[in-house]
Amino acid sequence: MAATKAKKLTVLCCGHTTLDLELVITGHNNPALVKHLMPCCHTPGADGKISHPIYAYVIEHEHGRMVVDTGMSDSFRKDWKNNFYKEKMAYDPGEDGLFTQRLEALDLKPSDISDLVITHLHTDHAGNLPMFAENEKTRILVHEDELRGCVLEKGGLIREDNLTVWGVTSPQGFTRKDFACLLPNRATTVFGDQEIYRGIWTVSLPGHTWGTMGVAVNLPHSGWILLASDHIYLSSSYGDPFNVSILNQDPRQWAHSALKVRKMVEKYEMRVLPGHDNKIIVPDKTAEQGFTFGEVSDFYD
C-alpha cells in the first residue's frame, strides 16, 4: 500500500440540534441504543427528542488543509422560509460552538483552506459555505447530483418553500442562500469515488440526498476513517440489519450505499464517524456483530 499523505484529522463539534428520534431512526426497536444522546439539552419539549452534535472536520495533508462541511450558519432561523424546520429542529451552538468560532480557535480563516468538501447541501452541513466561495484560494467540491438536485428543487424563479413533507422530495433541509454562491461555475463537481489527494477519497453514498458523499481518509496511526456524514446518521443506524430513517430521500439507494459502507469497513478495517453522534463505529471481529462503539476523539493522526 502506498504511504498515506494525510497527517491529521481534527473533529469540530459545532453545537447541537434537537430532533425527534422517530424521524432519525424510523421504527427503531431499541431506543436504548441512543440513550447517550438523551436527554435533550435544549428547552424541554415532548418526549422522544434527542440532542445530537453538528460536525465539521479539518484534514491536514501534505498539500494543505481540507475542511469537510461547515456546520450551521448563525442566521439559519431567518434563512428558512418556512417555520417547519425551526420548530422541528432547534439549534444551540453553545458559547463557542459556531463553525466560525471553531475555525478561529484553530487560528484558521477560509483563505487558509485549500479544499472544502460539502458532503451534502443540507443547511446543517453547508450553512457557512458562502464564506469559502468569496475567496479564490479554496476549491469547493460537491457531488454533481447534489448540486443539480438542489437547483432543480430549490433554485428556480418559482420554488415551493411551503412543502413540508419529510424525506423523499422535501426541500426544507436546503436553503438557496447556502448553494447559490456555487452558481454558475464556482463548484468543482465530482461523481463516483475519487481520490482527491493520496489517502483522501470522496465516496459516493447517495440515498440520504441526491448526491450525499462521505470522505475516507487514511491516517498514519489511526488507519482508515470514513466521515460518513448523514448517510450513517447515528451510530445506531449501522448494524445488521441497518436502521433506516424517514429523512432519506431514496431508501433503495440508501440501502445500496449502506452495503457499500459495510464492505469498506470489512475490507479496510475502516472506522466510521456518523453524521450526528458522539460514538464512532469501530470494526471488531471478536464482537458479536463485528463492531463496537467508541467515543469520538477531538483528533486522529
Mean pLDDT: 88
Q: In angstroms, what is the radius of gyration?
A: 18 Å
> Could you give a short account of the major beta sheet?
8 strands, mixed
Fourth CATH level, the homologous superfamily: Ribonuclease Z/Hydroxyacylglutathione hydrolase-like
Low-confidence stretches: none
Quickly give the structural class.
Answer: alpha/beta
Q: Helix count?
A: 9
Summarize the structure.
The chain has helices at residues 21-24, 76-79, 83-88, 99-105, 123-126, 130-133, 144-154, 176-179, 251-268, and strands at 6-20, 49-61, 64-68, 91-92, 115-117, 139-143, 187-190, 194-197, 200-204, 213-219, 223-229, 271-274, 279-283, 291-295, 299-300. With 301 residues, it is α/β, with parallel strands linked by helices.
Folded structure, characterized:
This protein has 301 residues and is α/β, with parallel strands linked by helices. It has a single domain (6-300), classed as Ribonuclease Z/Hydroxyacylglutathione hydrolase-like (Metallo-beta-lactamase, Chain A, 4-Layer Sandwich). It is built from 9 helices and 15 strands. Strands 1, 2, 3, 4, 5, 6, 7 and 15 form an 8-stranded mixed beta sheet that branches. Strands 8-9-10-11-12 form a 5-stranded mixed beta sheet, with helices on one face. Strands 13-14 form a two-stranded antiparallel sheet. The longest helix has 18 residues, at 251-268. The mean pLDDT is 88.
Features:
single chain; 301 residues; alpha/beta; Metallo-beta-lactamase, Chain A; five-stranded mixed beta sheet; 9 helices
